[in-house]
Amino acid sequence: MKLAELRAQVVNYCRRLAQSDLSIGTTGNISAIDQEESLIAISPGAMDYGSMEAADVVLLNLQGEVVDGERRPSSEWAMHLGCYAQRADIGAIVHTHSPAATTLAVLGQELPAVHYMIALSGGGTIPLAPYHTYGTAALAQAAVAAMGAGHACLLQNHGVLAAGPDLAWAWSLAEQVEFCADIYLRASAVGEPEILSQSQIEEVIEQLDAYRAQH
């Protein structure tokens, strides 16, 4: 994919982020990687997403150096870079502060398989990364470790990290994590939620893989 197109996609999803309930103000950040060029297009820090243009999207190399762009990259650039460096299957990342999922993160809880769509993450549980100050190497390392072979994790007292082969997937996963977290909190307020087994989740993962292969 051409870098110009990648930058345009980052702008598009940043604007969607600004219009959604997944984050407030300039919180949250989005990136995508051009695997052939080994360059990351990432949203700039502390900028109104509604006024963002493609030229505002910063290009980083895999050493975290700015290759193109006049603005500073998101303060969470190290977390994005860490995921790309460890996982060749990750092509895009969406980081949010969505309310329900962040509530679980504040409670110090992971998100269990309360709904089958949690299988979009590649597993039956959305794990919790321990708290570290935002923008630090320690947080980046904790997030990558917590995500493991999956595609999402909660960040304690912080938010959500969702990844995928492209921005459409990563965005959909971020939405589903929030949906599942909201359902879990609502159900827990009434009683004890029924949690899907690992075999049930694996069956859903197989169905999702088959569906993607057909489209």
Structure description:
The protein has 215 residues and is α+β, with helices and mostly antiparallel strands. Helix content is 40%, strand content 16%. The protein contains 6 helices and 8 strands. The chain has helices at 3-19, 77-86, 99-106, 137-147, 167-190, 198-213, and strands at 29-34, 39-42, 58-61, 66-68, 92-96, 128-129, 152-155, 159-164. An 8-stranded mixed sheet has the order 4-3-2-1-5-8-7-6, sandwiched between helices. Helix 2 crosses helix 4 and helix 3 crosses helix 5 (167-190). The protein is globular, with a radius of gyration of 17 Å.
**Count of helical segments?**
6
- Counted beta strands: 8
Query: What is the SS-derived class?
Result: alpha+beta
The general outline is globular
What is the makeup of the main sheet?
A: 8 strands, mixed
The residue ranges in which pLDDT falls below 50 over 5 or more consecutive positions are none
Strand content: 15-25%
Strand order of the largest sheet: 4-3-2-1-5-8-7-6
Mean pLDDT: 95
Q: What is the helical fraction, as a range of percent?
A: 40-55%
Ends apart, CA distance between termini: 19 Å
Strand and helix order:
HEEEEHEHEHEEHH
Global Rg: 17 Å
